[in-house]
Structure formats: structure tokens, C-alpha cells
Design brief:
257 residues, alpha/beta, 2-enoyl-CoA Hydratase, Chain A, domain 1, Lyase 2-enoyl-coa Hydratase, Chain  A, domain 2, 6-stranded mixed β-sheet, binds 4-(N,N-dimethylamino)cinnamoyl-COA
Length: 257
């Protein structure tokens, strides 16, 4: 594993996955996502593990999918690779997933946190779906989970302007479970995990499945549409311009083409 680290130093029942591409603010490239998917599969099948934590570092949980890896792709490339189908496997994890978030949780990073069952955040956490600023739209639940969780008006504003919200706002909106000082966010997540790990692991998994079922009844259709639309954005010049402008550290000029 190159881009994630897995350990269970806190407790034999709790596994911690740390996203580890610090220089790139944990941008989620293909390899990182595959490693994450594979690690989750192993931990989900390990009878000793009851709760899985996913974290980044103090500066970033994850600043989104890797823009540099996507920038030159065509719509057909994106559709063929279907690189993000790993996300479907991640959300099928039976054991509870807790995201311990500090710093940026943006785009795919915010979506990864939302794919988890609960989110514990540091006061410095910032959540956002800024894809619109690079000429695309959220592609892994940002238009669906976010809207179901915080409501249409707030989700629409976040998705159409790309604005970030603070940990406190995320808490007020019901997006996250807890906000704690930065030096305590991992500890707070571990403590929540320990409480859950003290319950029947079977009941916990059944309960998780049931809660998610109520939440996701019509989600599949939404996610399918969202993914196709994400790939469709790669047919536009604006996607190329948005991503290239990011890489060149300049303001994007959009033409609506
Ligand atoms: N991709 C690639 N590199 C990134 C990155 C990203 N998302 N975010 C940051 N980096 C890199 C920067 O390019 C920079 O690299 P160097 O220039 O040093 O080589 C380094 O990380 C440090 O970043 P900054 O210099 O920009 O740091 P700042 O503190 O000034 O700014 C920032 C931090 C987070 C505000 C800024 O880096 C930023 O705006 N980042 C991009 C955020 C973003 O737009 N995220 C959304 C990406 S699109 C799907 C599943 C998922 C997705 C789509 C589909 N399906 C299932 C279909 C997800 C899409 C996305 O997430």
C-alpha cells in the first residue's frame, strides 16, 4: 500500500485507515481509491474488526478526486475506465465507517466522508463540493447524499457556488456528528468507535444496513444519473479549461461549450 496506512493500534476491534498523499492534500487518485477499497474489503472480512475509521491528516481529509489525473480525459475515457465504480464497493462495507475529518474535505473528499456512516470533525474542518469551479459536477453522491442530508436550499448553494462550509455549519446542518478541537478529533472518533465496538457486531451491522436502506431507497437511480452526468461533463471544453486552469494556478475562463 503506497497511499494509505492501516493500523489497529487503538484497540483490537478498531481499525484505522489513514489516507496518505499529504503533499497532494490526499487527492484521491485511482491507486489510492483501489487501495482503500481493498483494505476495506479485508477489514470487513476480519472478525476481530468491528468499526473502521477513515482519516487524513490535520491539513486535509481529502481535497477531492485527483484533478491532474482526470484533466486530460475524454468522456469516453471516463465512461470506459469507470474508475469510480470502487465507490460502490466502499459503500457496501458492512461494518460501521467513521470519518475523522480535519482540514479540507472537498469534492470526492466530502463525498467519501458522506459515504461513511458518521463524521467526527475538528474545528478546522471545511466541507465543500467545489467541482462547479472546475467545470464539472459532483460525481460520487454530492448531489444526492448532501441534498438528502442538509436539504435542497443549502445543497444547491454549495453545489452551484462551490462554497465551503465550516465544521460548525456542517454540525448545525446535520452533516456531521461532532466538532472538537483539532488536537482531539482522532481521539473523539476513536471514542465513538469504541462505544459502538462494545455492542453486538452483528446487531451493529444489521442496524447499519437498516438505517442505510431507509436513506438510500431511491439513491441508486440518483447515483447512476449523477455518474453519467459527471462523465458527460468531460465532453465540454469548460471541463478542460477548468482543470487546466487549476493546474496552471490561474482563473478559469468558461465559454459554456
Ligand atoms: N487534485 C490534484 N491535486 C490537488 C488537488 C486535487 N483535487 N487538491 C490539491 N492538490 C494539489 C495542488 O495542486 C498542490 O500541488 P502542487 O502545486 O504543490 O504540485 C497541492 O495539492 C497543495 O494544494 P494548494 O497549493 O492548492 O493548497 P492551498 O492550501 O493553497 O489550497 C485547496 C487548498 C484545497 C483549497 C486547493 O488545493 C483546491 O482548491 N483544491 C481542489 C479542490 C477541488 O476542486 N476538489 C474537487 C475535485 S473534483 C466520481 C467520484 C468522485 C468524483 C467525481 C466522480 N464518480 C464516482 C463518478 C470527485 C470529483 C472531485 O473531487
Amino acid at each position: 500500500m503506497e497511499f494509505i496506512k492501516v493500523n489497529n493500534a487503538f484497540d483490537t476491534h478498531i481499525a484505522l485507515i489513514q489516507l496518505s498523499r499529504p503533499k497532494e492534500l490526499n487527492a484521491l487518485n485511482l491507486q489510492l481509491m483501489s487501495e482503500l477499497r481493498d483494505a476495506l474489503k479485508v477489514l470487513d472480512n476480519d472478525d476481530n474488526v468491528r468499526v473502521i475509521l477513515i482519516t487524513g491528516n490535520e491539513k486535509a481529509f481529502a481535497a477531492g478526486a485527483d484533478i491532474k489525473q482526470m484533466a486530460g480525459k475524454t468522456m469516453i475515457d471516463m465512461w470506459k475506465i469507470d474508475q469510480f465504480s470502487t465507490w460502490d464497493q466502499i459503500r457496501r462495507t458492512k461494518k460501521p465507517l467513521i470519518a475523522a475529518v480535519s482540514g479540507f474535505a472537498l469534492g470526492g473528499g466530502c463525498e467519501l466522508a458522506m459515504t461513511c456512516d458518521m463524521i467526527v470533525a475538528s474545528e478546522t474542518a471545511k466541507f465543500g463540493q467545489p467541482e462547479i469551479k472546475i467545470g464539472v459536477i459532483p460525481g460520487a453522491g454530492g448531489t444526492q447524499r448532501l441534498t438528502k442530508t442538509i436539504g435542497k436550499a443549502r445543497a444547491m448553494e454549495m453545489v452551484l457556488t462551490g462554497k465551503f462550509i465550516s465544521a460548525q455549519e456542517a454540525l448545525d446542518y446535520g452533516l456531521i456528528n461532532k466538532v472538537v478541537p483539532v488536537e482531539l478529533y482522532l481521539e473523539a472518533a476513536v471514542s465513538l468507535a469504541k462505544e459502538i465496538a462494545s455492542m453486538s457486531p452483528i446487531a451493529v451491522q444489521l442496524a447499519k444496513e437498516a438505517v442505510n436502506r431507509s436513506f438510500e431507497t431511491h439513491l441508486d437511480e440518483g447515483l447512476t444519473l449523477e455518474r453519467k452526468n459527471f462523465y458527460l461533463a468531460f465532453a465540454s471544453e469548460d471541463q478542460k479549461e477548468g482543470m487546466q486552469a487549476f493546474i496552471e494556478k490561474r482563473k478559469a475562463v468558461y465559454k459554456g461549450k
